[in-house]
Amino acid sequence: MNLKFKRNYPILFLLVTVITILALGFGNLRVIAYTTQVEASPTQESADGYDVSNNVALFDESVVHSIQVLMDETDYDEMISTYQNTGLKEYFKADVIIDGVRVYEVGIRLKGNASLRTALGGGMGMGGDRPQNGQWPERPADGEMPQMPGAGDSQENAETMGAGEDPAAPRFPAEGFGPGQAGQAASGEIKIPFLIKFDEYVNEQTYQGHSFLSVRNYGTSFDAAMLQEPLTNAVARLAGIPATQTAYSGFAINEADETLYVISEILDETYLEKYFENANGVLYKSEVGSTLSYVDENPSSYAKSFSQETRENEADLAPLIAFMRFLDQSDDATFESQLPEWLDVDAFASYLALNALLVNTDSMLGMNNNYYLYYDDLEQRFTLLMWDANESLGKLGGSATYDLSLTNTGSGPGGAQRGDRGGMGGGPGGGENALLTRFLANAKFKALYEQKVKEIYEQVFVSGAMASDVERYAALIRSVNEQRGLVEIEAYDQAVQKTLTFIEQRMEYLAGTELLSQ
Question: Which residues touch 4 (CB under 8 Å, ≥6 apart)?
């Protein structure tokens, strides 16, 4: 035997030992590929119940995240065409790379209502229209503003429009939409909102504990800065109001150039665990026109108003129907004495105050929309939770002079109609909201609302927190934009300035109101 080979025995033995230990000890661990490129054969066996981790926190607001969706182009085309032809938003299989970590076999679908119809057409058509003779309503001519449902024949002029809203901005994408355009028209001004579901195809797969990730755009009108939702949620948390975590991210489909989006958590069991000792209650989501008006005891009567988001197979709409019956049938004295048993009135007053101050009419205040009701079945009480603030800051028809009394009249999206009890109607959102109307008609609850208005006004406007947050977000985007090209910087800077101008004008108006000038 060769002497040199004998001398290498110890090295050989050590090598075999190391390989054996690696094979036995680490053979079943899942390896996540840190890449931003599409792999030639992205086939990875996924394990049930696996939580994908990352050194970058998903909603770290100090960074601009990166999300790349890898999916078959024919699936992408089918996802778009299915929605445009039928209004259905179906999941398709994809991989997603988030901040360098690849998550395999997730579900992705389109998300949103008005914002999605604005981006793609089709679906339900603009204004909720259904197709006639198999055809969707014609798209507006270039530069023409589509009319919102119930908005009347007039539109707000440029001086009274919300922050970032441009009446000449294109509202619909070019024909032939495809994944190579990554959710935007050739102009770069149209973005499609998406929902990513990490456990759609892999049972209980999560990403940093989240089952869903909402990839959100600017809403119903183009806005290069998309400040409304991050800003509203930030000041809501400052005021002690639960709000979803948001952050900015570049987003792309396959090899398209990334563009700026807002990512958000959604309201589900994970969200409830952060704010409630009992997170096992029932969560109800409102749809457009959810006025909380009692009809009868049949749950199907409310199918278009509310959807049940948790405990679908063991709970039902009975608590919500009972609450609506109370709103409808209780006399004024009973309403005042018993409403705190049915509802967290302090949280509700704060919700109203924040949305009124920030002119968020795509909420209970205008569209009767974008709110959740969480029923704690141990306390047997509801809490109203806010959601989807990308039309805040007067972006959906409100102006800097939006009335804090919530009893103004008007025909536009931000308008209201005085009801029998002196409360607010809802413009295109289905009319008078039963809870809002009765709440503000009651002297005790109206005083609570006005107290919250004063407190949040000081916390948000007088403190300078809003303007400071705008500058913070803008500095972040500008710091990465030269390298990543997420936005057209001139349009972005104009949108930022428009937001700051709206805040300044809103504060000037608020300071002159009887309620806040004292």
Answer: none
The C-alpha atoms of residue 352 and residue 343 are separated, in whole angstroms, by 14
User: Do 397 and 149 touch, CB atoms closer than 8 A?
Assistant: no
Count CB neighbours of 43 within 10 A: 9
Write out 64-109 in H/E/C secondary structure.
CEEEEEECCHHHHHHHHHHHHHHCCCCCEEEEEEECCEEEEEEEEE
Contacts of 513 (CB under 8 A, 6+ apart): 404
CA distance linking residue 240 with residue 246, whole number of Å: 16
Alpha helices in 343-463 (DSSP H): 345-357, 434-441, 443-457
Burial 234-261 (b: 16+ CB within 10 A, else e): bbbebbebbbbbbbbbbbbbbebebbbb
CA atoms within 13 A on the CB side of 14: 5
So where are the chain's domains?
A: 45-134+160-266+467-518, 277-441
* 27 pLDDT above the threshold of 90: no
Bridge partners, 464 (sequence order): none
Q: What single-letter amino acid sits at 266?
A: I
Enumerate the β-bridge partners of residue 308: 284
pTM beyond 0.85, yes or no: no
- Secondary-structure breakdown of the chain: helix, strand, coil percentages, each rounded to the nearest 5: 35, 15, 50
Q: Tell me: the pLDDT tens digits for 375-429?
A: 999 999 999 999 999 999 999 878 999 999 987 433 333 343 333 333 343 445 5
- Collapsing DSSP states into helix, strand and coil, what is residue 286? strand
Query: One-letter amino acid identity for 245?
Result: Q
349's tokens? 């007053």
Of 491, 417, 511, the residue nearest 225 (C-alpha)? 491
Q: What is the three-state SS of 330-387?
A: CCHHHHHHHHHHHECHHHHHHHHHHHHHCCCCCCCCCCCCCEEEEEECCCCEEEEEEC
**What is the C-alpha to C-alpha distance for residues 265 and 271, in angstroms, rounded to an integer?**
8
Contacts of 403 by beta carbon, 8 Å cutoff, 6+ apart: none
